Amino acid sequence: MGISDPAIKAVNGLTARWAGAIRGGTVFSAAGVWPLLAFLADGAGGAARAELEEAVGLSAGEAASAARELLGAMGRMRGLDCALGLWTKRTLELREAWEAGLPAGAHGVLTGDAVGDQEALDAWAAKRTGGLVERMPVELREDTEMVLASALGMRTDWLRPFREVPLRPRSGPWGDRTLLGLHRESALLDRVGVADTRNGPVTELRVLGNTAIDVHLLLGEEDMTPGQVLGAGVDILAGRSPVVQGDRLPHGDAGPGLRVEKERRTRPRPPTLDVTTVSYGMAAHHDLLELHGLFGLTTAQDTDHGHFPGISGFPLAVGSAEQGVTAGFGPLGFRAAAVTSFGLAAAGGIPELRFVTTTVRARFDRPFGFLAVHRHSRLVLAAGWVTRPAPMPGFEEFADR
To answer: At 279, phi and psi to the nearest 5?
Structure first.
């Protein structure tokens, strides 16, 4: 896809650091933030430039070209819509060299009509994300001179769909609730594995999509934090944490939520990966200035003087930095389902169980993490921590119990 290794490492590294700062269920996209930080670094000066370079993970001199390369490559990925937008007041003069580094056609105008400008920005956000994010997460103030924004919209259909089942965890935070579970079986045992990470074992399940955007489900030990589990997922992608795949796992409890069993059958059956997880939908809003140190924005938000001489001769500081993001995981499209059961008694004696097979059972029935990953480049497009799974229809009143 033409993305340089430094850019992928930088985005995935920011994903891991951001994951270390989250608390509770949320979803976020470092891939949406990083290009903006890179363009700001290119035009920054003084202490703000040094802080942004540290957050970006590249020198300011190479940051803008890496951001352009990343945006171009993401724009060519199947299942991913990607855009960058810039809006300025008519009176703000931009440095030609900096503006020339932005994607063509990205520059729009802020008219000064706060209501009209917000409507235009909201329409851009909705159009670029297919309606998933309906509002540009920015507050237009009288002193707002410029808005720089990115939009990502991703979609994928599972190569093997799940079927909906009621799921009632026996214990843990979701115990005694009836959830909208998802179940499927596969003969591909290597889709699951266990990594030995520095904070403990982590089970990884790769759910492959038809646009080369896959979702990696990550379950750690119960005492591991979201940051430790999601950070382990980034380490697995980078090859820093080796994974023992499902076809090489020992029998018994092989990892968090993972058990390998020998089963007797009446007829031959290949080894099977049996997966149970939950459907979920989530949305989040992030004020990036609350984590200004992580994003290299500590000095840049100081309004006493300007910090971006490479962008404009007019003194500029960061007044706001926000992200709105959504994610949903479920069976493909709309599904209508009915469950009908007949109880039949065995006739002709007890069947002889002559055949033995292996079943690898993976259950994600307590809080877990996920990474949405471009399969070929291993770029993390979005990440999150699931704490509020969808309830089974008819059990909604128990969803927050």
So the answer is: -80, 145
